Amino acid sequence: MSILSKPYFHDEAAAFAHLEAVLWPNGPVCPHCGVIDNAYALKGVRTKPSKKNPEGVERHGLWKCADCRKQFTVRVGTVFEISHIPLPKWLQAVYLMSCSKKGVSAHQLHRILEITYKAAWFMAHRIREAMRDGSLAPMGGAGKIVETGETYFGDKAVVTKRTRKDKSGLASKRAVLALVERGGKVRSFHVEQMQQADVQDIVRGNVDRASHLFTDKSRLHLHEGSQFASHETVKHAAGEYVRYEENGPVHTNTVENVFSVFKRGMKGVYQHCSEKHLHRYLAEFDFRYNRRSAFGIEDQERAQTALECIKGKRLYYRQPPQ
Residue 30: how many CB atoms within 10 A of its CB? Predict the structure, then answer.
């Protein structure tokens, strides 16, 4: 039987019960006053009658706080708040985006969930916002290896006079920098100008100084050796992709593999991405990589982790003037 046949993917009441179990393990939490497990469920409440539904629609998952006397649902304070899309469709979208290695396009969500493309696009960006990690703890540590690399793809949103003459050059491409702990997690960054000072600030701000840093021979990584336990390089321009040393192989193949999955997803699934949203797509790919099967995390656990991350994250877009 398909996982998507589970009741909470189709029934509104079951969907609320599932989300409450994930977000409220110790009982309902009032988003207005913060009191835990001091609310009671409101049963039989219906929406206002309309031409389409003369008797109104039953409201599932509605609670009332016994302290502040305000009503709420588990959606309040999450990326699901203020959405007319039924909760089961939200859960389906979260599962599909969590288990698809190269992502799911908004057009695909639009067709599968039978909602408008505009709604599917906004839904996907809200889920990406939930997947954003924001971790500040340094990567690596004593005896650990962190690989650093950069890649370029797609044209920048604005091509300046300086880059207009060379539109095929790297200066006119969108730049992405990634840090990968070998056997561990990844952090990816959209860098507007791939310059040595900017790259070094990111590397030094995110990598533990006791780590061993592996990079290619790019000028962006010059003078990094004194900042870390060691700094090994491979010269791709000379056809060197791995070098065997006493302490093990020296290469940046791990970060290159991260880029290969990212580019296949962006070119083969999403195809078009506005530069101002690139950081959200990077967060999505990082989320799946950091919770991959090699860590014992499978599709259902990954989707549940995504649901646990929806709290306290909202995504608004400014409405155009009327």
Answer: 22
CA distance 212 to 230: 5
SS3 289: helix
Global pTM value? 0.89
Partners of residue 187 on adjacent β-strands: 179
Q: Is 33 helix (H, G, I), strand (E, B) or coil?
A: coil
- What does the alpha-carbon distance between residue 179 and residue 65 come to, in Å, rounded to a whole number? 45
CA 40-43-49 angle, 5° bins: 135
pLDDT in tens, 82-113: 889 999 999 999 999 999 999 999 999 999 99
Find the DSSP H helices in 132-268.
161-164, 196-206, 253-265
The predicted-structure confidence for 6-31, as pLDDT tens digits, reads as follows 999 999 999 999 999 999 999 999 99
Phi, psi of 245 (to 5 degrees): -115, 175
Cα separation, 130 vs 301, in Å, equals: 15
Instruction: Give the residue from 77, 112, 76 showing the smallest Cα distance to 93.
Output: 112
Q: Which CATH architecture has domain 145-289?
A: 2-Layer Sandwich (3.30)
Residue with tokens 């940046």: 252
CA distance to 18, 188, 254, 258, per residue, from 184 (Å) = 30, 14, 10, 12
